[in-house]
Amino acid sequence: MDMATDIPPGNKDNKSLERDAIVWLTRVTDEDVTAEDRAALRHWLAQSPDHAEAFAKANTLWRAMPSAIETMVRSGSVSLPAPAEMHRGVIGRRTLIGGLATATAAAACYAMFRPPLDLWPSLSELAADYRTATGEQRQITVADGISVQMNTQTSIALRPAATSADRFELLSGEAIIGAASIKPVQVIAADGLTSADAAKFNIRCSTAKIVVTCLSGSVHVEHRDHAATLREKQQVAYGGGMMSNVDLVDLATVTSWQDGYLVFRNEPLADVIAEVNRYRPGRIVLLDAELGRGLVTARFRLDRLDDVVVQVRDVFGARIRTLAAGIVLVG
Description:
By secondary structure, the chain is an alpha+beta fold. The protein has helices at residues 3-6, 14-28, 35-45, 49-63, 68-75, 83-88, 93-113, 123-126, 251-254, 269-279, 289-292, 306-316; strands spanning 130-131, 138-143, 146-150, 155-159, 166-179, 185-189, 192-196, 199-205, 210-216, 219-223, 226-230, 234-239, 242-243, 247-248, 261-268, 283-286, 295-301, 320-322, 327-330. A hairpin with a 2-residue loop joins strand 12 and strand 13. The longest helix is centred in the N-terminal third of the chain and has 21 residues, at 93-113.
């Protein structure tokens, strides 16, 4: 495999760089790694400080596992350039080895706030009033007449009540909120506000967008200069100053997690894997963008999510590599 052509050196976002860094680590742990591969890696690292940071974070993750990458790093076969040397475009072996410890320590600190590949909760999530672990669901009552069913990897922080409504913030994850007519509820998610009175709704908070689905009653959603009122079976998404049109959805699909299932209908494989990762310990890492565009229609049991990897291998013919700590590389 020619890594120099598999991973172009152009500008990429942080998530793409993290995936690329995993690809490099995978390659250099193969038995057939060559001197050309290592030279190509050094070239990739020299593209920008972001490339080096992505590699440092990936390296920190892998160093925590009983992985062959530990031996590679200690022997000097793979190492990280110091940021100053990268700016000058000068990469020597001694500089590579010396820069590794500093960059890795910085990446570890940064990872406390933005975990690589979302493998563990961020500091803000850990500081929440209520939080569920991977695979956990929990029922709570945040105020009189307001019940919340928290899905996996969900963090909620209580906020001071408004004059006429109880309020809390969904920091991450997904929840079904039931509001009786005793007092309205307001849910903050990112820079949006969802309000309801005598209604039931599902709200999901991800890095890219917030999705609100009305299960019964009426729900009002506000995001900056946008607003929408939802009725039963209606859904809207917002984020980045934009709000989608109101769509009709299948409520059984939206709430299937309550019954112990994940249901997908013509969803890109990349989105399927991202969803499965919320429920499964470790991480499934998709390395092939083209593979991720393949469509999936399936129904998976939450207590048998390893079936997903098997089906991806059998249906798409994808290469699967299983590492320690539940890490699975696909593609």
